[in-house]
């Protein structure tokens, strides 16, 4: 899971250059995410981890934090 978190942090850091995120920081509450970036995150998760994000997975809670994204990846990969 730590490897997945590292990949997720690396992706997010390319977009939030001036912000160092903790794994439990809510990127939506911090105002970093708009609808276009939300779709980019979904595309990154699918491409990077070889999983399919289904409609029922498109819940903000699955994408709010590095921890949440990593948990979604683990669940979908199982």
From TrEMBL:
Carrier domain sequence ranges: 1-77
Organism: Tumebacillus avium
Stated name of the protein: D-alanyl carrier protein
InterPro entries xref list: ACP-like_sf (IPR036736), PP-bd_ACP (IPR009081)
Signal peptide range: none
């Amino acid at each position: 899971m730590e490897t997945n978190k590292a990949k997720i942090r690396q992706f997010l850091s390319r977009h939030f250059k001036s912000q160092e995120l903790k794994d439990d920081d809510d990127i939506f509450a911090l105002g970093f995410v708009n609808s276009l970036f939300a779709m980019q995150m979904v595309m990154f998760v699918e491409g990077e981890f070889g999983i399919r994000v289904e409609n029922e997975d498109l819940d903000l809670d699955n994408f709010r934090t590095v921890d949440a994204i990593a948990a979604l990846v683990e669940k979908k990969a199982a």
